[in-house]
Write a structure and sequence with these properties.
7 helices, Methyltransferase, Cobalt-precorrin-4 Transmethylase, Domain 2, 5-stranded mixed β-sheet, 10 strands, alpha/beta, 25% helix, Cobalt-precorrin-4 Transmethylase, domain 1
Length: 251
């Protein structure tokens, strides 16, 4: 059996209880060493076989899984954040299907929600935004034309942009065109929940300079939208005059 587990954004205590338990029981662990904090490995049992996938190909990863399965071993594939977001797990699962190997996915805390927690904000505010767009800038990995950052920004909702801080000038240029203004609040969170976490706040007209001054080139979330600062309406859910299935509102 293979378990795909989200290790969380960094802090080893942000893995789920189930994820930690399976990590402790694993006979073989394949971890994304370029992104997953190796402090997670301290929870592996003695004799656990560990493989850093940063230098491995898909075929090499699958070969380790197949060998372990043939030997009756429990395998954990440890991914950063939540494996369903930029985790490249679909291709691994398809290979396991071909080998008729069973697998389970255990979700994790994504860096985009960890980053929002780090700046102590809420993506979805009444009368501000009820939508969060999770995306990335095109680079060596292409993005479908209909998902161009400028087009997505035209919705003017909350955004969490992965894998793009190295192209901050281009990101800002597209966001300005999409939002139609230069004063949109932005937060860049470097390595959310890690000991070296760093938070930069600004607006579209100055965030690129701040990123460059800080020397940030990777491992960052770019959060964009008026949820970061500004006015919002009170939630109806807890309004004394609002009636719902669990409470009668006052007149």
């Amino acid at each position: 059996m293979v378990y795909f587990i989200g290790a969380g954004p960094g802090d080893v205590d942000l893995i789920t209880v189930k994820g930690r338990r399976m990590l402790q029981e694993a006979d073989v662990v394949i971890y994304a060493g370029s992104l997953v904090w190796d402090a997670h490995l301290q929870f592996c049992k003695e004799g656990c076989e560990k493989h850093n996938s940063a230098s491995m190909t898909l075929e090499e990863v699958i070969n380790v899984m197949v060998k372990a399965e043939n030997e009756g071993k429990l395998v954990v594939r440890l991914h950063t954040g939540d494996p369903s977001i930029y985790g490249a797990i679909r291709e691994q699962m398809d290979c396991l299907d071909e080998h008729k190997i069973e697998y389970t996915v255990i979700p994790g805390v994504s860096s985009f929600v960890a980053s929002c927690a780090a700046i102590k904000k809420e993506f979805t505010l009444p009368n501000v935004s009820q939508t969060v767009i999770i995306t990335r800038m095109e680079g060596r990995t292409p993005v479908p034309e209909k998902e161009d950052l400028e087009l997505l920004a035209s919705h003017k909702c909350s955004m969490a942009i992965f894998l793009s801080v190295q192209d901050i000038d281009k990101v800002v240029e597209k966001l300005k065109k999409g939002y139609g203004r230069e004063d949109v609040p932005v937060a860049v969170v470097y390595k959310a929940t890690w000991p070296e976490q760093q938070i930069l706040k600004g607006r579209l007209n100055n965030i690129a300079a701040k990123v460059k001054e800080a020397g940030i080139k990777n491992f960052s979330q770019i959060l964009v939208g008026d949820f970061i600062e500004g006015d919002y309406e009170r939630s109806l859910l807890y309004h004394p005059e609002f009636t719902h299935g669990f409470r009668e509102g006052s007149k």
